[in-house]
């Protein structure tokens, strides 16, 4: 169940660009209230997107974006979405029918087929959790980022369980990604030159977040006892 948040953008720019930006722009120069749920705001390198709803009863809404638009990353398509994620020059979102849509430079010419539960965009790649909890990645293949679990790569080796199912995923702004499986194991794949894709193997996690050269996770301790851990 989601709850309603009221996002207020405090703005300092002299340019405005909400929703269908056609020129480079920064944040709006007025305070803009947006009704969003907890999965519907995403900040990229130089642009951000959110899903605007009309009321707390709404499931999904239109995507609004602001910021730099030199690759079309701030020009979302029409229609209702339930989740959005931003990369460097592209953005991706899940439509209300659970299909995927991406826009900007680096968006796939042929969008990935199937139904999605979550999408996470890095600089030049994106990964998504499918309806069956498997992972699909597209975009750059640098660092092995496209070698997403099916038979999944963790610390450069094939995981013994090729049927892992995922509950949460985070694509970094670098060339690696991490995900939390159904049994709360943390798995990472892609570039690992700083050990950023080498998660602990003796801990259970409920959440993971990635930056360019590091990853942090929230460990399962007890029902109300949580502890963070980082690698990289």
UniProtKB/TrEMBL annotation:
Membrane topology label: Single-pass type I membrane protein
Q: Could you tell me where this protein is found in the cell?
A: Membrane
* Keyword Protease appears in the UniProt entry: no
* GO MF term list: protein serine/threonine kinase activity
| Catalysed reactions listed for this entry | L-seryl-[protein] + ATP = O-phospho-L-seryl-[protein] + ADP + H(+); L-threonyl-[protein] + ATP = O-phospho-L-threonyl-[protein] + ADP + H(+)
> Which Gene3D superfamilies does the record cross-reference, listed alphabetically?
Regulator of chromosome condensation 1/beta-lactamase-inhibitor protein II
Q: What EC number(s) is this enzyme filed under? A: 2.7.11.1
GO cellular component terms listed in the entry, alphabetical order: membrane
Keywords from the UniProt entry: Disulfide bond, Glycoprotein, Membrane, Receptor, Signal, Transmembrane, Transmembrane helix
Broad class of enzyme this protein falls into: transferase
User: Which top-level group of life is the source organism from?
Assistant: Eukaryota
Q: Give the range the annotation lists for the signal sequence.
A: 1-19
Primary localization class, coarse = membrane
Q: What is this protein called?
A: non-specific serine/threonine protein kinase
Upper lineage is: Eukaryota, Sar, Stramenopiles, Oomycota, Peronosporomycetes
